[in-house]
Amino acid sequence: MAVPNAGENIEIHxxxxxxxxxxxxxxxxxxxSQSNLLIGANDHVLVKESDGRTWRTREPxxxxxxxxxxxxxxxxxxxxxxxxxxxxxxxxxxxxxxxxYIDYDLDIKVFPDMTYKIxxxxxxxxxxxxxxxxxxLKKILYKQLHTLERWIQQRKGPxxxxxxxxxxxxxxxxxx
Length: 176
What we know:
The chain is built from 3 helices and 11 strands. By secondary structure, the protein is α+β, with helices and mostly antiparallel strands. It has one domain (9-173): Beta Barrel (FomD barrel-like fold). GO terms for molecular function: hydrolase activity; metal ion binding.
């Protein structure tokens, strides 16, 4: 698949290190797309879990994917402000099927006041032993976790004050 155009809808597929599907978001509208960046938006999108369960997201969200770093960011627009869910993950790729990445369990949850909490370190420890992550991969993932923390502290990229407003406004103007 060529780089999708603004206004197109794509699926997002999350995998685990062993190649098994983890989660699928059925529809995200592309707002900006380049070879190394994709910004998208979705609202009440259907999500399929690897165990067959399905659910819908509860609010509009702006998604930020880059192939330059090992993380992605979901900016959830809630009544009490913007909440961010950040996944430590492989850089994304796009093929004819979907945008795809490997989820490496480590996450950061960022609250509207920009305080944050690192999540799922126990899950990361369990999976890195089960799937035998190489030492070089573990070093990359922890380095990227620290880079992500700096981005949050510096209000860089998707954490900048105007980022979500700009992209959500565009999303609302595009036909669905």
